[in-house]
Amino acid sequence: MKILITGINGFVGSHLAEYYLAKGGEIFGTYRTHHTGTELKNIEQIKNKIKLFDCDLRDRNSVFRVINEVKPDVIHHLAAQSFVKASWDNPEHTIFNNVAAQLNIFDVCRSLGIDPVIHIAGSSEEYGLVYENELPIKETNPLRPLSPYAVSKITQDMLGQQYYYSYGQKIVITRGFNHEGPRRGRQFVTSAFASQIAEAEKGLREPILKHGNLDACRDFTDITDMVRAYALAVKHCKCGEPYNICQGKTYKIKEVLDYLVSRAKVKITAEPDPSKIRPSDVMVLLGDHTKFSEATGWRPEIGFEEMLDKILNYWRENI
Q1: Which CATH number fits domain 181-218+249-285+295-318: 3.90.950.10, 3.40.50.10950, 3.90.25.10, 3.40.50.1820?
Q2: CA pair distance 252, 258, nearest whole angstrom
Q3: What pTM was estimated for this model as a whole?
């Protein structure tokens, strides 16, 4: 199969490409060249085994050029502005970027008369405000978004359903809960903590770890389990329906902090940083992956502590 991964140089895209290469797939990917230069570090080890396209997905002509050349059997659409806090700083960019790119992919496939399976990587942030009596979160839970990012992902989700019902496009929708691992950007909580610890161990900063809200509860899945789930989704999930992918357990952010600090080679002190507090925060995200597991046979295999050890060791090697 020809597999096109948008945002292939990102955290998830790079791991998904590695997964497919190990299975013998023919991999294509899009990335963006920014004015400061191209950052392809995440795929440095595999870039000679895949075909890359510098493509602004917001530009229909660029999308047409790529899809017309590749004519993929599967598209994993992962490219997005994915940092929740940044969506508060520039909501217009987040919503336009995330929605326009997806529309271009849908419409270009239609105009070319090709019908790949298109995977839309949604987010647990779509559920937003969840009440205690609504846990664990099923796909039928109400969507009460608490950030512009969440609104953009709901829009992507709804557009996927609309294009499936209106045009019969083979669109698979997943809602991934927090997924973490090596190469995760340091603006995300697990890497933020682990990178600060790695810097402190090497004497590059004071052994003071800055943090935001520690009371939020999250359902963490290791990136290896997540990309395996994505590959199964395009084979087995029904089009036009959302599927939760998650561990099915929650941990407070404080538990993440405490575990990583316990693994540090120097004594670490933790201090709150007001700049890391969001205007509104999702307090509990506990998912139910029953629907997805019944469709695919998937089960998470990597636990919480093993996941965090991998992240900390990654930053120790890369600081």
Answers
A1: 3.90.25.10
A2: 10
A3: 0.94
